[in-house]
Write a sequence for this structure.
């Protein structure tokens, strides 16, 4: 990934004044020199590339979103939306520009805010919020002496299960449930750090919901295709899967995880014969 410009408050002021054309020419020069290399723009925290540049800039191949979370008091901008908020907003922009989470909270920093669960929240929030990927962060940005041990932090290790889950389904079909027509109750409070996000395949063949904490989530099964819906609980900590049943009656139905912690609910059109979304140890 080519970072065209690294934004700070001062740099962003410059970008909107006397240096904006120079920055554009830098991006165009990079694109002309390396036309097959993806280019993006790293905006300041709580912003995305397309907050600063039009989405149809020729050199801007993909957008990057960057935020921490509500209540975070370390960034220069104290108003930090959560990842799902900026992801939903970015997905809704026209023209459409693919985006990824380029930076958020680092596991192992800022006390409880850098928790194992927070590392997972950010990843699932972006991928189910319309993004195509995310960047994981840890204290290894500073190359500590124990960097090998830092590689094995539990949040980092658990994210391999996220990859297995999303590769078990045609994830490019997923559309975020922006209007809450799939998950109709139990999401939690929007703009809070425990909000449950859901995405549905564009053909209704499957849906995925991430619940940061245990709660009952009501899903409208009529939004899924097929006569029967298979339900699975996927454990994002271990990659293990538990079957929650096959449902022929298509109506709103409540689902509650089998234990405390964060969970992923996977719903499939049974006729598609998707495999159980289990992870390889």
């Amino acid at each position: 990934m080519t970072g065209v410009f690294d934004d700070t408050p001062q740099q962003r002021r410059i970008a909107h004044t006397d240096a904006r054309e120079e920055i554009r020419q830098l991006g165009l020069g990079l694109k002309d020199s390396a036309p097959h290399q993806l280019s993006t723009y790293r905006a300041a925290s709580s912003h995305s590339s397309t907050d600063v540049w039009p989405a149809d800039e020729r050199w801007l191949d993909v957008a990057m979103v960057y935020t921490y979370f509500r209540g975070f008091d370390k960034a220069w901008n104290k108003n930090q939306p959560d990842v799902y908020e900026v992801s939903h907003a970015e997905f809704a922009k026209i023209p459409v520009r693919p985006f990824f989470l380029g930076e958020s909270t680092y596991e192992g920093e800022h006390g409880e805010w850098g928790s194992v669960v927070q590392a997972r929240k950010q990843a699932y929030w972006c991928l189910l919020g319309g993004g195509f990927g995310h960047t994981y962060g840890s204290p290894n940005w500073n190359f500590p002496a124990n960097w090998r041990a830092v590689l094995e932090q539990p949040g980092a290790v658990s994210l391999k299960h996220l990859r297995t889950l999303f590769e078990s389904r045609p994830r490019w079909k997923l559309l975020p449930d922006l209007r809450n027509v799939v998950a109709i109750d139990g999401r939690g409070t929007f703009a809070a750090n425990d909000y449950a996000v859901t995405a549905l395949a564009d053909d209704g063949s499957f849906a995925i919901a991430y619940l940061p904490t245990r709660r009952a989530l009501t899903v409208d099964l009529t939004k899924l295709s097929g006569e029967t819906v298979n339900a699975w609980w996927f454990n994002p900590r271990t990659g293990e899967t538990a079957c929650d049943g096959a449902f022929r009656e298509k109506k709103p139905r409540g689902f509650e995880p089998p234990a405390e912690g964060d969970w992923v609910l996977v719903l499939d059109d049974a006729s598609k014969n998707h495999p159980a979304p289990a992870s390889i140890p």
Observations:
- The chain is about 25% helix and 25% strand.
- The longest strand covers residues 241-247.
- The chain has two domains: 2-167, 174-272.
- Helices lie at 9-15, 20-33, 49-52, 83-91, 116-128, 147-150, 154-167.
